[in-house]
Write a structure and sequence with these properties.
By secondary structure, the protein is of the alpha+beta class. It contains 13 helices and 18 strands. The strands form 3 sheets. Strands 1, 2, 3, 4, 5, 6, 7, 8 and 9 form a 9-stranded mixed beta sheet that branches.
């Protein structure tokens, strides 16, 4: 019997509906000499029947069913490695696909030069709107072979195990398997693979299609989308500690700052956008888990972050949880603090009090935001809806407060407009902001949603409402933040005025 060139493992649990699509993408591969192992983590739906039917149609397909559910991705992958017959291995989740040339392209990279694994581009597809993007495009933009991860530590950000084809000999030589009994297993497995590999090749070709369901029900959401669970935070930090230990044990401690930066910029940042909407109990538990780990990270990792992210981290570490909510709102959207405080030497700090520690002064110093010196068109303000009530018909009455910590706006009333763009055309609602005290203005606007120019095909515009200020012929537009208690909205909603900033 001819041995397959590549074994592709499809892991599945209670996903009978999407499993045929994943397997069809493998049967359509341009390189046909493959083995397909469906590794079932003891599904309780129709998956076993569907898998057996698929295996009956194609001799290349083998069905493996675990005797009990493992609760993760590692065990079904590891059991499949044990029975795989090919010298090269790939992994596919049942809700995703491989592009037609994925196996061919990665196998060619292995045959061109002896490497421990080859990796390519991941195409992400939003299930709700079909929007496509490339995962970490800057890391896979060109074809290259690296003699170790030290040549480009940024690759630690690309921690997916599914975007790679591994040499079976490489995995066996190091006893490299997926860690069982923990979540975020890909991060540890990929960090180990990067560090243990003597050489690996990157190709710019798409090799994986990753379907993203941002509005999936919480019970059915992927592990990454279960950030509302404190156990999720605990699991993520636990894996980071395992990676840290491995870096030391394997002689790669030099990568620690790069790995810490990746954790802050990617892993912590995923939680940060949700922090304003967590209750006090959740935030307290989050801080108890996160802060001891943050204290172990390299100082250089914090320095590489944008100032607003450093502020959130410092407020969390200092136990200022109410301030954490304020600072985390609008992250990534150039939203100013409500208030700043200056010291005698001219330093400007986030909040209404001067920091008490050297670390606080270093991390909360917002002088680099240039709140008082930027050109007006790019100046940072903070616009918040402080009250939202229903008016007649489809009208919403908004009370809006604008904070100007850099004192850029002149004394007196300000001309402002609320701008919505549910499609290509804009809805503009002029109103006036009146001074409340130095650096704070307030106004009221009535928004008639019935006049919003919604395209026939539905919402297809800018998700967030903007507030535009006008001054001497110049305009400044900034995000308008929703009230604290505004509900989250699903796809297709036109309740744009109450949408929230997202990561």
């Amino acid at each position: 019997m001819t041995l397959p060139d590549v074994t592709v493992t499809v892991i599945v649990f209670n996903d009978a509906a999407r499993l045929p699509r994943a397997v069809a993408s493998l049967r359509a591969q341009t390189h046909a000499n493959i083995e397909i192992v469906i590794s079932d983590d003891h599904s309780t739906d129709d998956t076993p029947a569907v898998a057996r039917e698929l295996a009956a149609r194609d001799h290349r397909i083998r069905y493996l069913r675990l005797p009990r559910n493992s609760g993760g991705c590692s065990a079904p992958r590891n059991r499949a490695i044990e029975i795989a017959r090919a010298p090269y291995l790939m992994f596919l989740d049942s809700d995703d696909e491989l592009p037609p040339r994925a196996v061919e392209s990665l196998l060619a990279a292995h045959r061109e030069r002896e490497v421990d694994f080859a990796m390519g581009a991941v195409r992400r597809v939003r299930v709700d709107n079909g929007r496509r993007s490339t995962w970490m495009p800057h890391l896979v933009a060109e074809r290259r072979t690296l003699d170790g991860i030290e040549a480009d530590p940024r690759l630690l950000f690309e921690h997916l195990s599914t975007s790679k084809m591994y040499s079976r000999a490489f995995l066996d030589r190091h006893g490299l398997r997926f860690p069982e009994g923990i979540h975020y297993e890909d991060q540890l497995f990929s960090a180990q693979a990067y560090c243990l590999a003597k050489a690996f090749t990157i190709i710019p070709d798409p090799v994986y299609v990753w379907y993203i369901e941002p509005f999936a029900a919480q019970a059915a959401a992927s592990i990454s989308n279960q950030r509302h669970k404190i156990s999720n935070v605990r699991d993520r930090v636990h894996v980071q500690r395992l990676i840290d230990d491995f870096l030391v044990e394997s002689g790669h401690a030099v990568l620690r700052e790069d790995k810490d930066y990746k954790f802050l910029k990617h892993d912590f940042r995923m939680y940060a956008g949700d922090l304003p909407y967590r209750d006090d109990a959740w935030l307290g538990e989050f801080a108890e888990i996160m802060n001891p780990y943050l204290d172990t990270l390299a100082d250089g990792a914090f320095v590489r972050l944008p100032r607003p992210e450093r502020v959130v981290l410092e407020l969390l570490r200092d136990g200022r949880l109410s301030d954490v909510r304020l600072a985390a709102r609008g992250l990534g959207h150039n939203v100013a603090p409500r208030q700043v405080t200056a010291d005698a030497s001219g330093g400007t700090y986030w909040g209404g009090t001067l920091p008490a520690t050297d670390r606080g002064r270093r991390e909360l110093d917002v002088s680099d935001l240039e709140l008082d010196t930027r050109p007006f068109t790019s100046a940072q303000f903070r616009h918040e809806i402080t009250e939202l009530t229903r008016g007649p018909g489809a009208c919403l009455d908004l009370t809006i407060r604008t904070f100007d910590p850099g004192l850029r706006l002149p004394v007196g009333p300000q001309r402002a407009s609320l701008v919505l763009s549910p499609g290509r055309r804009r809805l503009t609602v002029p109103f006036r902001l009146d001074p409340v005290r130095p650096g704070v203005f307030e106004g009221r606007a009535r928004l008639d949603l019935a006049t919003a120019p919604l395209p026939v095909q539905g919402f297809d515009g800018v998700r967030h409402p903007l507030l535009r200020l006008s001054q001497q012929g110049l305009a400044n537009s900034g995000l308008l933040l929703a009230p604290w208690n505004s509900p989250r909205r699903g796809p297709g909603s036109i309740t744009v005025p109450v949408s929230r900033p997202t990561n």
